[in-house]
Amino acid sequence: MSRLVVVLPLTPLTAGERFAVRDWPLHVTVLAPFLTYAEPADIAATITAATSRQSPLTVVAGHHDLFGRRRTVPVTVLVENPELTALHGTLVDAVRPFAAVPNQTAFTGGRFRAHVTEKHHGRVHEGDRLRLTQIALVDMAPAESPGGRAVLATIALGRHAKSGTATS
Fold it and tell me: Looking only at Cα atoms, what is the longest distance across the chain?
């Protein structure tokens, strides 16, 4: 069983790219981590089809906040963006059939709060305009895994049904 996540990286990623948990590139999580038995290529193909008409998004960084169970994870919450919220809903609907457990938080959680987590190597600031041009499907290997996270596929936004845009 795999644990996957769907993100919108602030800087495009490449399929096959790996990074340690602490070195996650800055990104917006558009579909929270979920468990699946499905092949990543099947999930990537479904995401590609579901987002074939999705244009790149421009979002604005809002206020800073603390997330996590203990409210210790510094983030910058994005200003409400109807297009980003709609993309989240599209991905929930498209990926839910692949879920090992359909009632996982990724598919049944509360209100979507788009944000960018601060990292040791960078952060976004209130008022920053962020251009999101890519969706990435990422393997959330256990934190202790020496390989860290692995980008399984990328899908360009704004491709308008061009073939061959998903890589795995």
Answer: 44
pLDDT for 51-72, tens place per residue? 999 999 999 999 999 988 899 8
Dump the DSSP string for 41-101.
Answer: HHHHHHHHHHTTTPPPEEEEEEEEEEETTTT-EEEEEEPP-HHHHHHHHHHHHHHGGGBSS
**Residue 55: phi, psi to the nearest 5?**
-85, 160
Order of strands across the sheet that contains 2-9 = 18-19, 149-156, 134-139, 2-9, 27-36, 115-117, 73-78, 57-67, 129-132
Q: In degrees rounded to 5, what are phi and psi of residue 35?
A: -95, 140
pTM exceeds 0.85, yes or no: yes
Determine contact, residues 162/31, Cβ cutoff 8 Å.
no
